[in-house]
Amino acid sequence: MADSSFDIVSKVDRQEVDNAVNQARKEISQRYDFRNVGADLELKGDVVTMRANTAERTLAVLDVLETKLVRRGVSLKSLDLGEKEPKQSGKEFVLAGPLKEGLSQEIAKKITKLLRDEAPKTVKTQITGDEIRVSSKSRDDLQAVIALLKRQDDIDAALQFVNYR
Predict the structure, then answer these.
(1) Whole-structure pTM value
(2) In Å, what is the CA distance from 73 to each residue of 9, 13, 20, 68, 101?
(3) Would you say 125 and 132 are in contact if contact means Cβ atoms under 8 Å apart?
(4) What would the pLDDT profile of 48-69 be if each residue is shown by its tens digit?
């Protein structure tokens, strides 16, 4: 019997992110607590930028965006905000968060080490670019690997499991 396999990837659905940003922008324009505070939100390329006249309002804009992203099924791990501290730029505070896509070598090595230590011994991993191929003779072992990775909170990437064969 041939080996079964799947790929671990980290991709962002751009259309869903765009929809979430548009929904958040609409909510910000309609909410009373955002009136006259210069609150704004925009997506340019791979960077989501939030602006307001105070740091607290900027974080409130971020909260609205995060709510919309979760509702649209986009993982918050795909938005790289660093320390979540708005920076002052003139009279307004700005918080910029680039979208993270693809697995970095550091995260890929961390995942393969985790699978080597805790997954069933028949599981083999191979890093190819920004994704990881996981293969095994047993499909049950592959299901166990997926369950193991879904339980991990310390992996700083939004993981998807594709090409399951």
Answers:
(1) 0.83
(2) 16, 9, 10, 9, 15
(3) yes
(4) 999 999 889 999 999 999 999 9
Terminal C-alpha separation, the chain = 13
Please name the residue that has the structure tokens 């592959």: 142
Q: Which residues have a Cβ under 8 Å from the Cβ of 36 and sit 6 or more positions away?
A: none
Give the domains, in start order, of the chain with CATH numbers: 4-11+102-162 (3.30.70.860), 14-98 (3.30.70.990)
Model confidence pLDDT, tens digit, residues 88-126:
888 899 999 899 888 888 888 999 999 899 888 888 999
Residue 33 burial class via C-beta count within 10 angstroms: exposed 0-12, middle 13-18, buried 19 and up = exposed
Helices (H), 14-121: 14-30, 55-71, 105-118
Closest by CA position to 10, among listed 162, 152, 157, 164: 157
- Dig out the tokens for 162 from the structure: 């594709």
